Amino acid sequence: MKTYKVVLVGYGPRGKIWSKILKKNKNVKLVAICDINLKTKNKDSKKIPFYLKIENAIFENNPDFIVLSTPPASRMKDLKVCAKYKLPVLVEKPLAVNINEAKKLVRFMNRNKLLMMVGLNFRYLPSTIEKIKLIKLNKVGKPNFARFVYERWRDGKLMRLNKYPLLMDQPMLWEQSIHHFDLIRYVYNSEIKSVYATTSNPPWSMYKDDTNVNAILELKNKIIINYVGNWQSNSKSLNFEWRTDCENGIIIQKKQFEDLYYRHFKSKVEKKIKLKKIKMWFDDANLLLNDFLDSLRKKKDIYKINSDHLKSLAVVDACIKSSKTGKKVRILS
After folding, report:
1. Are 133 and 22 within one domain?
2. Can you give the residue range of the structural domain that contains 40?
3. Against a cut of 0.85, is the pTM above it?
4. What CATH number should be reported for the domain holding residue 94?
5. Which of 92, 199, 218, 259 makes a 20 to 30 Å CA pair with 21?
């Protein structure tokens, strides 16, 4: 099997995690790291060539693809360099923080017939995989409505976190809810057709813009989701619950990456689903990487893969519009 050479662009907190993932994956070889800030270089990258400019890293190392782990503000500049050298891209979410800009990026990569997969690693979690199985196996019947709650105190000043969300517009939606909306689409196998939402920011928030989101999401398959998400809950413990009410019972996940159960209507006992143990942020991202490599080998469904993330970004955009107008917003397919 071919070993793919890769250049990692962006060596911030997430980029450093990606470097470890790429080094351990037997199907890839990390040939260079690139970041505009030389100070990000550390002992882990000493044995790998380090560049300040992406084009130099590509020209001198002839990679097969790029992992783009940079802030979403200047994606087009980097994608143009990748396209010049006919390189597919695995890019960190969100693709952009503006739906129109995201569409431009997708159209650009489509015109160049290059794969661009967005790194939504939560799809590869054992809790996600097993939840889909429960629904497909009809364990408690067809889903009808759900409640998705994510309440967290996110200290955006921590060294291990990127700092740009502190100043960006709608950081919760673009950086966190995007994961949740993508999971909702993926798990229920349906697109979201309408949104009614409000966003706000508590007075104690360290973020410039809104960190609280409340939304009602209506899916095309008629499932209704009550979504609550925030980054500035005034409690340092994470409160997570994703409950799906079905025809014959419920499916409920009580922790963000674990504690998955189902229960029949007449039963008083929840049945816990055994989940595969993983190293969070690494094993799930490695499965994402393998999926990307599989898409490279097959060389098909490029346009479908490139456009998929736009459907999750459209939900974010609809939430913002709904919050501003006070009206339900329909998402055009």
Report:
1. no
2. 4-120+283-300
3. yes
4. 3.40.50.720
5. 259
